[in-house]
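Q: What residues go here?
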């Protein structure tokens, strides 16, 4: 059981992270963000610890970024890393008015859950590792300055094979609820992320039904584990068609996403922060993510939570291609990050004008680097 003091700290942090007009910068890639950006030029940047530190230091010191970003999700490397001038990354973040957090799951093994079917990702259903030593890692993360955490589980859709299976859903939601309980014990606000990936040829209606099923199971699990919902956050997928399925409009994405949330997520949760998810190679993922978020706030009203963004490459792609590991490009790269962050903040009031924020577009799109993330 949590003390009133711990509950108050968790709630204050969750509320600060859910501040109006703000979202998350997901900066928790296990390798260089440019390897995950899915762009032909970005992938040329050498993936070294020094380059990762230089790039992330540039991100976190962007002037004015805290006007649109409340929290920054870090990889464990970044949590203890310093930049070339010897300044800790966490100090750069807090000094720029944002809250540092940490990704705590250890990814998944593609051999998967025994007996489960092969999914559109090319492997069986999976579960994430990291529970065994999570108590110590939560304590260490808090001591290093993190005040919230993230754990991502992955579910695949394939109606013909019965995916996601009831087994995979149950393992996913129980794993996430156990993680959340341990986080709260150590005063970290947990971000609960049951991601249903868009790979496949399914329709948006199939994704809507499965998203509802998963989220309802997730909050049943949270109740069993006695999660303090006012001190927790949710990071779900948007309800979208499969990458190879019939294309749904942003208005349909918005309405079916909010419908699934209203049918499944308790109003006690202060904030819901969407991951952008994969898009087809012909799409501009930055612009698509912003337009979908904007459509939710244009067409859906009376939502009981702060409905916002937790984007990785959908905030960083143009920034990376502008930066290209050249010191003389830092100011322009920071301007690109700030512009896309502002665009998503505008989307939170339904006032974003499509095409008003420059992006690198889809011309250089390539398959992103392999791996869970």
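A:
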């Amino acid at each position: 059981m949590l003390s009133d003091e711990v509950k108050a700290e968790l709630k204050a942090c969750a509320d600060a992270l859910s501040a109006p007009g703000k979202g998350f910068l997901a900066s928790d890639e296990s390798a260089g963000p440019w390897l995950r950006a899915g762009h032909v030029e970005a992938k040329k940047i050498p993936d070294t610890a020094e380059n990762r530190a230089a790039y992330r230091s540039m991100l976190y010191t962007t002037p004015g970024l805290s006007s649109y970003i409340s929290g920054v999700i870090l990889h464990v490397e970044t949590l203890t890393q310093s930049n070339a001038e010897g300044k800790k990354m966490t100090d750069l973040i807090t000094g720029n008015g944002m809250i540092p957090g940490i990704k705590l799951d250890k990814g998944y093994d593609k051999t998967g859950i025994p007996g489960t079917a092969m999914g559109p990702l090319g492997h069986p259903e999976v579960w994430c590792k990291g529970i065994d030593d999570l108590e110590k890692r939560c304590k260490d993360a808090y001591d290093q300055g993190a005040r919230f955490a993230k754990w991502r589980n992955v579910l695949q859709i394939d109606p013909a094979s019965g995916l996601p299976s009831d087994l995979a859903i149950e393992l996913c939601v129980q794993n996430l609820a156990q993680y959340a309980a341990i986080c709260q014990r150590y005063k970290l606000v947990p971000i609960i992320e049951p991601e249903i990936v868009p790979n496949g040829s399914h329709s948006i209606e199939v994704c809507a039904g499965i998203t509802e099923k998963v989220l309802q199971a997730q909050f049943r699990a949270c109740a069993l584990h006695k999660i303090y919902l006012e001190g927790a956050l949710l990071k779900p997928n948007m309800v979208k068609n499969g990458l190879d399925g019939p294309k749904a409009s942003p208005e349909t994405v918005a309405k079916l996403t909010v419908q699934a949330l209203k049918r499944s997520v308790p109003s006690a949760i202060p904030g819901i922060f969407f991951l952008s998810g994969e898009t087809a190679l012909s799409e501009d993922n930055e612009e698509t993510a912003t337009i979908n978020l904007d459509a939710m706030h244009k067409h859906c009203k009376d939502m009981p939570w702060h409905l916002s963004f937790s984007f990785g490459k959908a905030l960083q792609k143009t920034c990376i291609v502008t930066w290209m590991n050249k010191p003389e490009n830092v100011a322009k790269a920071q301007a690109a990050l700030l512009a896309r962050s502002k665009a998503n903040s505008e989307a939170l009031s339904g006032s974003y004008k499509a095409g008003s924020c420059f992006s690198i577009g889809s011309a250089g799109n390539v398959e992103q680097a392999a791996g869970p993330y």
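A: Context that may help when evaluating the design: The chain has one domain: 4-347. The chain has twelve helices and eight strands.
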